[in-house]
Amino acid sequence: HVAVTWAADCHNHTFLTDQKHPNLQNVIISNFTSYEALWGKIVEGFKSSSSNAAEWFLKADDDTFVIHKNLMEMLAEFDPNKPLYIGLPLRYTFKDGRKVEYMSGGSGYVLSREALQRLQDSSDSLCSVERSLTAYEDVNMGVCMKKLGVRWVDPRDSLGRHRFLPYPPSLLMRKDLQTQEKYIWLQNLSIYQFNFGLENLSDRAVSFHEVRDPMEMYLLYYTTRHLHIA
């Protein structure tokens, strides 16, 4: 479903998985097959990519929907030759009190060409598949990017609304979820205030996570890619 919707609009796309699929052409078969081994899979995928193939490299989950046009418009604001890391900015606190900024993995994040090159050239153990500080792939990437001197940037729109989003529109529109226990993690981890409600949904949104119903993915693709208002 990803392959025939938003990924088809990309310059190139590759799927990281543990087995071939008859309908997927661009596949990297990974030895890292469990959720706990996701860090290894992502590093393997990035290191298998050619840094000369594009200016920007996006990592997204299989239940993430990306609006390609908005992604490209946002990236036009930045220089791919600088070490940049872009997504939904969160902050993780280690047990010893140390903190690290990272981009939410579910919402998807982007590495500039220079950031990818640094990752590929690095021999630092913090950026290797053999070592992971946490069980969370996205937190580990934040640690790695900081070690490599890659800086994260504020990706919000001109009104301060987030563009990389951790839930589908149907949930983000609901103001009543703002303080519900299941969603309070956003208030606790987000570097910038995260607000639910239709008025807080950016008209320049780049991604939505947890789009798990295929029909919802096709509906999003239709409304963002094919629907025209006269």
From TrEMBL:
GO molecular function, one term: glycoprotein-N-acetylgalactosamine 3-beta-galactosyltransferase activity
Keyword tRNA processing: no
The enzyme's E.C. designation: 2.4.1.122
Database matches in InterPro entries: C1GALT1/C1GALT1_chp1, Fringe-like_glycosylTrfase, Nucleotide-diphossugar_trans
Localisation: Membrane
Bilayer topology term: Single-pass type II membrane protein
Boundaries of every Fringe-like glycosyltransferase domain copy: 3-153
Pathway: Protein modification; protein glycosylation
UniProt keywords, alphabetically: Glycosyltransferase, Membrane, Nucleotide-binding, Signal-anchor, Transferase, Transmembrane, Transmembrane helix
GO cellular component: membrane
Pfam families with a match to the protein in the record: Fringe
Family affiliation: Belongs to the glycosyltransferase 31 family. Beta3-Gal-T subfamily.
Stated name of the protein: N-acetylgalactosaminide beta-1,3-galactosyltransferase
Protein's organism: Meganyctiphanes norvegica
